[in-house]
Design goal:
The complex is a heterodimer of chains A (about 190) and B (about 525). Chain A is an all-alpha fold and about 190 residues long. Chain A has nine helices and no strands. By secondary structure, chain B is α+β, with helices and mostly antiparallel strands. Classes of the chains: A mainly alpha (about 190), B alpha+beta (about 525).
Chain lengths: ~190, ~525
């Protein structure tokens, strides 16, 4: 968080474009990555990130620091933008992020990361969408429980519980052979 | 992969559930894989710079600029007062026997659950023809002072205040003076945004879930009690459609149970003044316009939020609030701060705000008195339960553009001083359009919220229009019905008359040739 963030927010709300520019500089990479983790496609992520920042710019005057931190507010806008994106697709299932997509969905994904993501996707797809979001926000985005709670509009305690259950479920879904191999490896050492 | 990061994550997990430490190997493997699989990406520098430029060049909407300037309002004339939705069946008829607090409990019990009821596709039946919500008007037509060019202006399509065609009314300045009529031309529209792909063939249309249960239950309650002069129990199958509750030195509460909405306004007397005598003596100019301070937007929203919270008024179906100002007054520099200043909570579905056809946000409005910062009224508090049903949407963007370049669904905007003056509209955003749907089968008017595109008017500055955007619905059926209605040519009036007593008829032009003046 910028040391003078509240001043920049106030200036932005008073019409200071340059102040908003500084906020943009601080958050653009974080928001882009957040969106990318949910879409796995560069152009789509750029488009949705643009929409999120434009919306934030247009709505900056209604931001209330008593309700949430600025970063949480921004993440919330980005998250909703991604959800809207998937809802405009003609799919027969409820999709909130790329992990919900069935195979051969016709939507774009970057090739570069596909191999890595396929491996971890086997684990993440066993989780429900809320659990998966929390895992990704904790492990990839490194967000605090408080931030996650505000973004997802849940309580902090609820988020901790969901995270714990998600981890428990990941552990249960490890193939038995892998589990035994790991245990044997541990015994050898 | 950063080992420290993995270690921190695992320690965090064990703090939540120490039992998971038994599975350290497994968790270390899985979490390690998740960390390794994290896409190593950065936003492209060119993209970052381009978006930054776009944002730096954006102008914050006109409706909010007033709060960044120290304008001294020079005229304050009464602003819009609260409008009661319905006033019917005063409870006072039977108040002696009715437990009013029980009634209140019943209403809140039914109306505080927020939900959306998913129905099958096309469940609302025909969406009909898009209705003009009455929000579009020519620039000054509502004052009745000036009118549009009669030869071009259709009478249909104007909201309240449109002058009839061919009126060419005179503008009165004083009692005896008049000046020649001024005829405004329609603005032309030109789309200047880029390509836009309408992604989906189907989107949800929303509608308030009109629940008769409250009305019927209340009627049963009422029928159990009767006034001394009428036995309500004799009226079978009755429903309570509306109620008015009045609080001494508090608020009048108007409940339209048919339409699922509540409005309230202050029952405390307060004097709305628009002029004041500031001086005395022979040199005094007499009464001068009253001046009111323009309260900062953050303050207005804070007052409104506090009020809604105090009275338990749900905001869950509304988007981010904003303070509403007279955009045209602001553009032309004659903005004055009214005494009653409005905070709008726009109705919102799927993170998209709802608009009227003329671009105004549709939703709950809180009116605040600038004199004492008290809330005077709240309009359009909706029972936050909706039904939604998917309908087919138009995906041909060009079809939408044709409508936009015609000035929208309800005719053009009249206010241009010269023919050919053009309004540029930019790239759209998805919104919802508030529509009235009148059902011929049961005569009930229902309100629909239809997916739409909102096109901003980019060069509204200095232009003679109230609207700042054009909103066009995407529902295919509505566009089809609109085109059918507007493509049918109106038959030319063809007056026929024959010689008296002859039973013969002659066409009109023959009559002209035979008339004395033509000879």
């Amino acid at each position: 968080m910028l040391s003078n963030e509240s001043d920049l927010i106030r200036e932005s709300q008073e019409g200071g474009n340059e102040a908003f520019g500084e906020l943009y500089d601080e958050y653009i990479q974080k928001i882009y990555k957040f969106v990318y983790f949910k879409t796995h496609h560069k152009e789509v992520a750029e488009d949705l990130t643009s929409k999120a920042f434009i919306k934030a710019f247009e709505k900056i005057k209604s931001y209330d620091s008593r309700k949430a931190s600025f970063s949480t507010w921004l993440y919330g806008i980005a998250r909703n933008t991604v959800i809207d994106y998937y809802r405009t697709k003609k799919l027969n299932i409820n999709v909130e992020d790329v992990w919900d997509l069935p195979a051969k969905n016709g939507l774009l994904e970057d090739v570069d990361n596909r191999m890595k993501l396929e491996e971890v996707g086997k684990h993440l797809k066993t989780l429900d969408v809320g659990q998966r979001e929390i895992i990704i926000m904790r492990v990839w985005d490194d967000l605090s429980y408080k931030e996650i709670a505000q973004i997802m509009n849940k309580s902090e305690a609820n988020c901790r519980m969901m995270y714990m259950r998600a981890v428990g479920k990941l552990k249960e879904n490890v193939p038995f052979a892998v589990y035994v191999a790991l245990l044997l490896n541990n015994l050898k050492n | 992969m950063n080992d420290d990061r993995l270690k921190n994550i695992l320690e965090d997990i064990y703090r939540l559930d120490p039992n998971l430490k038994e599975y350290e190997e497994v968790l270390s493997d899985i979490v390690g894989k998740i960390l390794t699989a994290k896409p190593d990406i950065e936003a492209d520098a060119r993209f970052v710079a381009k978006l930054r430029d776009e944002l730096m060049n954006k102008k914050i909407k006109n409706k909010l600029n007033i709060f960044s300037m120290n304008k001294i309002p020079f005229i304050a004339v009464g602003a819009t007062a609260a409008v009661a939705v319905v006033i019917v069946v005063s409870v006072s008829l039977v108040s002696g026997r009715l437990p009013v607090n029980k009634l209140t409990g019943l209403i809140t019990q039914k109306t505080t659950s927020d939900s959306v009821i998913q129905l099958s596709a096309n469940a609302f039946g025909s969406l009909g023809i898009p209705s003009d919500s009455g929000s579009q008007r020519s620039a000054l037509a509502e004052e009745g002072a000036l009118t549009a060019d009669a030869a071009i202006a259709p009478s249909v399509g104007f909201g309240g205040g449109g002058a009839p065609a061919n009126s060419g009314s005179m503008m009165k300045i004083g009692e005896d003076m008049a000046i020649s009529p001024i005829y405004y031309q329609p603005y032309q529209f030109k789309y200047t945004g880029g390509d836009f792909v309408i992604a989906s063939g189907e989107m949800p249309v929303y509608r308030l879930a009109l629940n008769e249960t409250i009305g019927r239950t209340m009627a049963r309650l009422l029928s159990g009690a009767s006034a001394e002069f009428v036995d309500l129990s004799k009226f079978k199958n009755a429903g309570v459609r509306s109620m008015h509750i009045s609080q001494e030195n508090g608020f009048n509460i108007y409940m339209n149970l048919d339409q699922g909405r509540i409005s309230l306004d202050s029952s405390r007397p307060y004097l709305m003044t628009d002029t004041v005598m500031r001086c005395d003596g022979p040199d005094c100019g007499g009464y001068e316009p009253e001046e009111y301070p323009q309260l900062p937007e953050t303050q207005l929203i804070s007052i409104a939020d506090r009020f809604l919270s105090e009275y338990g008024i749900s905001k869950t179906v509304y988007g981010q609030p904003f303070a509403e100002v007279d955009s045209m007054g602001d553009r032309f520099g004659f903005y004055y701060a009214p005494r009653l200043q409005t905070v709008v909570y726009p109705l919102s579905f799927d993170s998209k705000d709802v608009y009227e056809s003329g671009g105004q946000a549709s939703g709950m409005r809180v009116l605040i008195d600038a004199v004492d910062s008290e809330v005077r009224s709240v309009n359009e508090i909706l029972n936050p339960i909706f039904e939604k049903s998917n309908y087919e949407m138009e995906t041909d963007f060009n079809r939408i553009i044709k409508i936009v370049e015609n000035g929208g669904m309800w005719g053009g905007y009249y206010g241009a001083m010269e023919a050919g003056e053009t309004l540029e509209v930019g790239a759209p955003e998805y919104v919802y359009l508030h529509q009235y749907d009148y059902s011929q089968s049961d005569g009930i008017v229902r309100e629909l919220y239809v997916p739409a595109l909102k096109f901003p008017i980019l060069n509204a500055e200095g232009k003679n229009i109230y609207q700042d955007s054009v909103v066009v619905p995407l529902a295919k059926e509505m566009l089809d019905n609109y085109e059918i209605q507007n493509d049918v040519p109106m038959p030319e009036p063809y007056f026929m008359k024959g010689e008296e007593g002859s039973g013969e008829v002659m066409p009109m032009d023959a009559m002209v040739e035979s008339s004395p003046s033509a000879q």
